[in-house]
Amino acid sequence: MARRETESRTGDRGGGSGGGRRERRRARAREDRVRREARAATTAPADAPLVWGAGAGCRVLAALWLGQLVLLSPFAYGTDLAGLTAVEWLLRLWTLGVALWIFARLGAWRVTADRDGVAVPRLFTVERLPWDEVGKVVARRDGCVRVGSRITGPFLPAPLARLLRRPDGARAMADHLTIMVRNPELRPTERADARTRVRPYAVRAPLPLAVLIAVHLLAG
């Protein structure tokens, strides 16, 4: 009897905890819905394509990342490159490729919404999502935004934005895209041009690669 009563109390606590989580999710969903409805009521239809991209903070982080890449290059200064084995070349090239991708991902990300849909960069291509395929747009706590199945950003993380009393850019972007998904009349009426077009991350690799090569030549 005592054991059954203990199990009953434990189950009640578990159910209460689960119910509390569900209620918090419902409350957040209601808050998101009210906020987006209010924003939709005050949002004018866009003519030109809308663009979100790396700001000053992202570019500073990219510059710092490039600085540490110069200091800690996968191809260490003074290394006899001719003496590297095929596996060593492969590992170093893989590490360099990932480092260059992170540089571009931080300092050169861009998302464009035009009359045809949303364009999100990938490493070598650009994923163009028609409006009826965009799906759910979610702002994450780390400052990134999930557009359909793609992750883009980052913006300033939400907790840090609140601490610094700065706008939550990720949530603003997610809200605006969600509003346009649900309200076709608020979507841009023009296509992206050369100035607003999204480009693959690999397009940004030559600049940091040239910096690394120059530093190696000078150090050699």
Provide an overview of this structure.
- The chain is an alpha+beta fold and 220 residues long.
- 52% of the residues lie in helices and 13% in strands.
- It has helices at 2-42, 56-71, 86-107, 158-164, 169-182, 206-219; strands at residues 50-53, 110-114, 117-121, 126-130, 137-139, 145-147, 150-152.
- The strands form two sheets. Strands 1-2-3-4 form a four-stranded antiparallel β-sheet, with no helix packed on it.
- Helix 1 (2-42) crosses helix 5 (169-182) and helix 2 (56-71) packs antiparallel against helix 3.
- It is elongated.
- The relative contact order is 0.15.
Shape: elongated
Average pLDDT score = 84
Number of E strands: 7
- Strand-and-helix sequence, N→C? HEHHEEEEEEHHH
Q: State Rg.
A: 23 Å
Broad structural category: alpha+beta
The end-to-end distance, rounded to whole angstroms, is: 81 Å
Tally of DSSP helical segments: 6
User: What portion of the residues fall into strands of 2 or more residues?
Assistant: 5-15%
Q: Largest beta sheet, briefly?
A: 4 strands, antiparallel
| Biggest sheet: strand arrangement | 1-2-3-4
- Helix coverage percent of residues? 40-55%
Runs with pLDDT <50, length 5+?
4-12
